[in-house]
Amino acid sequence: MRVIHKAHLHQLTFLPGFFPVNCYLAEEEHSLTLVDAALPYSAKKILKVARKINKPIKHILLTHAHDDHVGALDRIKLLLPNVPVYISSREARLMGGDTTLDPNEPNTPIRGGVPKNLETRADVLLQDGDQIGSLIAIAAPGHTPGSMAFFDNRNNTLIAGDAFQTRGGMAVTGQLQPLFPFPAMATWNKEVALHSAHKLLDYKPSLLAVGHGKMIIQPEKAINNAITKARLNLKHI
């Protein structure tokens, strides 16, 4: 596991040299917020980092319900039973293995590792604009129908989940990067993802933190370039 600390954010990366899976600990004044839960074996290492920071985990936020973002959730919830779990109201269905679509959603199949044996359910269902500590929840569908990002209003850090990837090259989710194709292969709808990418860019982030890949400081240019490439790719489909 690799740990990188920038601003109020600690990035914990599992399998950094092969298939990097990130989760994050966001520091508040007296507590921590865990964003995503990485892989099934990650719980002890996540809690060890929290102990080193010397602040308790007060919230668990989930960007979406794919297996590599909820992997250690059951174990963490067992060890921290009083810490509430937050996920978008739409994504809560996927958390329970329900891959059906709403009538108003594009009829493309939900892909990726949908949980089959996850026991934990959300304590709080999030809506766009809800605030948890210093983090604002932003609906960012595309990778999954209920994906969310989280924006730290203290320093403009954007924790984007799989709305973007930086491993294998900066890209909007759904755009195939040959050196790391997995986020694209697990994306539900490319057009919806592109719309969400524009929405997230409007927040003018100073730091971009994603589910797979390194953090990017002052990422606006990189995000703009990724959006332009995605738009061109979609026009040629």
Would you kindly provide a written description of the structure presented here, covering whatever features stand out?
- With 237 residues, the protein is of the alpha/beta class.
- The chain has a single domain (2-235), classed as Metallo-beta-lactamase, Chain A (4-Layer Sandwich), CATH 3.60.15.10.
- Helices cover 25% and strands 24% of the residues.
- It contains 7 helices and 15 strands.
- It has helices at residues 43-53, 67-70, 73-79, 91-95, 182-185, 190-201, 220-235, and strands spanning 2-6, 9-14, 21-27, 32-35, 57-61, 85-88, 124-126, 131-132, 135-139, 148-152, 157-159, 164-165, 171-172, 207-209, 216-217.
- The strands form 3 sheets. A 7-stranded mixed sheet has the order 1-2-3-4-5-6-7, with helices on one face.
- Helix 6 runs antiparallel to helix 7 (220-235).
- The relative contact order is 0.15.
